[in-house]
Amino acid sequence: MNIPETGVPRIVVIGGGFAGISFIKKLRNEKVQIVLFDRHNYHTFQPLLYQVSTAGLEPDSIAYPLRKIFRKNRDFHFRMAEVENINTENNTIFSSIGSLRYDYLVIATGTRTNFFGNESIAENSMPMKTVPQALNIRSLILQNIEKADITADERERKSLLNFVIAGAGPTGVELAGALAEFRKGILENDYPELDEDEMNVHLIEGQNRVLPPMSETVSKKAQKFLEKLGVQIHLETYISGYDGKTVTTKDGKNFETATFIWAAGVTGALLKGIDGEALVERANRYKVDEFNAVKGFQNIYALGDIALMETQEYPKGHPQVAQPAIQQGKRLGKNFRKMLKGDKMEPFTYFDKGTMATVGRNKAVVDIGRMHFGGAIVWFLWMFVHLWFLVGFRNRVVTFFNWTYSYINYDRAARLIIRPFKKN
Ligand SMILES: Cc1cc2nc3c(=O)[nH]c(=O)nc-3n(C[C@H](O)[C@H](O)[C@H](O)COP(=O)(O)OP(=O)(O)OC[C@H]3O[C@@H](n4cnc5c(N)ncnc54)[C@H](O)[C@@H]3O)c2cc1C
């Protein structure tokens, strides 16, 4: 793997997501060697993936080279590889490019899409967890609209213009809102031969309200916003399958669609080699103590979405969103500094800064403690927060420019089919 032995403790980090990068940043000047593995050579800002899928942003606005983030870290090494296995007895990881010994291991692998064992959905739906997947969705949406424009068969045209999204969590809501705006701003102007009313956006949710993890107040507000945009919401509806043409539900509904986006769930991205008391099977997460150490191990830590820390306030673990991952990464980084000096580590405490979701132009909702708001001010706040947390100055500037341009012109500039989507 071409990693030198430098005589200092080697920390192997798996995953350059929010947790992994927050952790490594805190160790910039420490006498440790850090080896970061990720299957991509960039960090992905997942909260804005839906903007790539719906042609609002180019993919390079929400991704950032991992090597560049840590340019100033000394004794830092990045390897683009898939880590497959861990041997905890020999302190070794095994990856697609070979094996490596570690002194400390930090697992920050996040989650992967959960199809709940449904093969037809796994095979035929469009998941949205990575930049390539978001680009696939973008291409498919645009390809289907182009096809619809030249299709005389009414049934086929309707299927091409029928967009079905599974899951009304923040991702599903954001996608549905963006697609509904696409119909208003783009279809109307750029596809004069198409009837705007033939394009439908369906949002399907198993629970009895949209945004189930958020408060009922903002859930109602978000539903109103979506309905105003013309999104058709189907609550308490469970999807049973998708054969590539029709989404079927357990209560007997059928949705003919050429675009079915799966935003209905994630599950922990586990690695082979850690099980027993360390593994919480129902959630596919690693059980950690208040210092993020994996149960039963002294030199293995887990951070972010993959870690399950049971606390009084969060008996089922922290929510799988960006803030716990960032805060745990920072805390563990600071704790490593303490440990290297021989000081005691501090336990992790989560500071809940609130939860936001956007539905569309001037429409966003937020829960902050006992306060629940929605509207244009929250939408501007949502934009500010996302710009703030985007990695890289260039990405912030480009995204800000794109959003301002879209706001003024009602446009989605990245409507390009650069690499047509082909189903395998
Ligand atoms: C579409 C979408 C929208 C979201 N929107 C929001 C939002 O609006 N607000 C919010 O707070 N949160 C949101 N989230 C959740 C948020 O992105 C996650 O909670 C956060 O990314 C968790 O950070 P993490 O570091 O634990 O994992 P991640 O950020 O997922 O990083 C994991 C990294 O590990 C790498 N990896 C995984 N397995 C391996 C392996 N075996 N070998 C090598 N590399 C590996 C992956 O490539 C990835 O880079 C969203 C998530 C998604 C998918």
Helical/strand content category: alpha/beta
Question: Between the first and last Cα atoms, what is the distance in angstroms?
Answer: 33 Å
The protein's oligomeric status is single chain
The small-molecule ligands in this entry are: flavin-adenine dinucleotide
Query: How would the global form be characterised?
Result: globular
Q: Profile the largest sheet.
A: 5 strands, parallel
Question: Which regions have little confidence, pLDDT < 50, spanning 5+ residues?
Answer: none
Task: Give a description of the structure.
The chain is built from 11 helices and 26 strands. It has helices at 18-25, 49-53, 66-69, 119-124, 131-149, 154-160, 170-190, 216-228, 322-341, 376-389, 393-409, and strands at residues 10-14, 33-38, 42-44, 63-65, 76-80, 83-87, 92-95, 98-101, 104-107, 111-113, 126-127, 162-166, 200-204, 232-234, 239-242, 246-249, 254-256, 259-262, 266-268, 279-280, 285-288, 300-302, 307-309, 355-360, 363-368, 371-375. The chain has a 5-stranded parallel sheet with strand order 5-2-1-9-22, with no helix packed on it. It is globular and about 70 Å long. With 424 residues, it is an alpha/beta fold. The mean pLDDT is 95. The structure holds flavin-adenine dinucleotide.
